Structure formats: C-alpha cells, structure tokens
Amino acid sequence: MVDGGVHTHVRSAVVMTREGESMVALTETRVVPPTPAKDPARRRRRSGIRREGLTGWLFMLPFAALFVIVFLVPIIVSVRSAFFAQVPSGGGLYGGGELVDTFVGFDNLTAAATDAAFWIGMGRVILFALIQIPVMIVAALALALLLDSFIVRRPALFRLSFFLPYAVPGIIAAMMWLYLYTPQVSPFLPFLPDGTDLMSPQTILFSMANMTTWTYTGYNMLIFLSALQAVPRDLYEAARLDGASGFQVAMRIKVPLVRGAALLAVLLSIIGTIQLFNEPVIMEAANSWMGKDFTPMMLTYNSMMGEISPSGSGPASAYSLLMALIAGVLAIVYALLQRRKGDA
Fold this sequence. Notes:
The chain has about 350 residues and is mostly helical. It has three domains: about 1-30, no CATH class; about 40-100, no CATH class; about 110-344, MetI-like (MetI-like fold). Helix content is about 65%, strand content about 10%. The chain has twelve helices and five strands. It has helices at about 40-80, 105-115, 115-150, 155-165, 170-180, 205-230, 235-240, 245-255, 260-275, 280-285, 295-305, 315-344, and strands at about 1-5, 5-15, 25-30, 85-90, 100-105. A three-stranded antiparallel sheet has the order 1-2-3, with no helix packed on it. Strands 4-5 form a two-stranded antiparallel ribbon. Helix 5 (about 170-180) runs parallel beside helix 10 (about 280-285) and helix 11 (about 295-305) packs antiparallel against helix 12. The radius of gyration is 35 Å and the shape is flat. About 25% of the residues are buried. Mean pLDDT is about 85; it is low at about 10-25.
C-alpha cells in the first residue's frame, strides 16, 4: 500500500502450536523509502561538465593533430626506415633497376653501432659539451641574476639585447662567425698574436663552442630569469633585514632556488649538443680536413644524402635512433645525479 508517498509492505503469518489448540496471527509491516526523483540541477551540472570537457578537447584538437603529424609520424617513419635498406631491383653484377625498400632487420642498427666514425664524432660532441655547456650555463645564470637585481635600471632593454642572438637563424650566425674566424677578412684577428688560427684542429671545438654560447646564452638566461621572478620577494626582504648583503642573497637564496631551471637548461643543452649541426657544417665548408662525418649529425645527414657510405634512409635512420638513445641516456643520468645531490 502507499501512504503519503511512503510504500508499506504488510506480511501476515499464522502460527499454530503443537497441540493445535491456539493460533497466533503475526503481522510484519516494512516501510520502504520512496525512490528519489532525479535532481534537475544535478542533471544540468553534469551536462555542463560534459560540454566543458568537449570544448576543451575541441580546442586541443589542432595541437594534437599537428603533434601527431609533425612529431609522432616522423618518429614512426624513422623507426620503420631503420629496418629497411634501399637496394637495386635489377640484381646482377652491376645492379640496375629502381631502388626498392628491402627488409634487413637489425643490420642497419648493427652497422651504426659498430661504425668507428660515429663514435669518434660522438666523442667530439661530448668533449664539446664538457667545454661549452658549463660556460654557457654560468654566463646565463650571471646575466639572469644581474637583471633580477636592482643594479640594472632598464632590464627590459638588456633582456632583449641578450636574447637577440637567439633570434638570428643558426646558419646565418655560423656564416657570420666563419667570416670573423677567416684570417683574410677577419676584423679582429690582426690584433691577436701572430700565428693565431681559430680553425685549426686544436682550436676548432673552442671556436664552435664560442658560436653556440653566443647564440644560446640569452635563451637560457630567460629560463633562469623566469625562475627567479617566481620566487617570493619576501624571502629577499627577510634576508636583508637579517643583514645579508646582495651577494649573499644571490648565492644563498637565489641560486639554490633555481636548481630546477638549471636542470632544464642543462638537459636541453645536452640534447642540442648531440644534434650539433649548423656550426660544423659551415666550418667544414672552409676546412675540408674536418670531413663529412665530423659530428654524428653530419654523418647522419651526409649518409641520407648519399655523400658517404653506407647511404640511404635506412642507415641514416639507424644513426638518428642511436643518437636519440644516447641523448636520452645522458639526460637521465644527469637528472638522477642532480636528484641524488639534491636529496643529500
């Protein structure tokens, strides 16, 4: 039965004693709460959440499409190409016919991993990184600390000036520095000691390190400056009230607080150094002794273009995958060392 919206269920039973003389009627009444009606406000709220989620996905769709086309698809194509080689379809002693992709398994990767020229070039870029990255990071941090202090009156002008070299295309910057390094046309080499050669085998890495440092110091400075401006100013004021000087505030408060930014800058620098290309390519145009395989990236490019053997997309993809693996391992090792140092 229903009473005022409350459902009641009545159950009756008759119990008889053994002798059959008396009978007792038992009645059980159970109240069942009514089923709650659907809340219109809750339904509208859920519908609004679904619409907001759909709107977010629609806004992200252009980025996702470009990410897949520009980033994921080339990686998939490169991985596939590493397992194929282009061989003539005609066969015979002199080949002949069109080049066709033939599955070769791990032959390309094995050849890349055992190529002495690749590892010699990798040794050069690692030495380059040991020279260039510390100098660039220290210079970028010093400039960021300078702009974050009260010494500079117009930080926006200086920030733009320091960042401007990064806006110059890499090839143009490398050509400009090649002009400055060439003895016949350089405007400052006549003022250096006699016999100074900035493109000799002994100095070529330092010359390229100078080019890269000039280009990327301003970029890394912005990374440090963003981290410094996110630090609450109350910390600086409290330190000055305790009698700390500006140098002590910078060394004991600012520098430790930008450790995360330093980690990001170094990781990006490691990845970029493994891919060193613009500077050695331009320098090799005037210094043929460098060869086409001076760096792993040059080796990969010239292998793809058929300048050196083995050539083709298969060996080039194998070199690129090996470079990516080495860059990832170096980045992970550095991150783990920094985390262990921070925990200590």
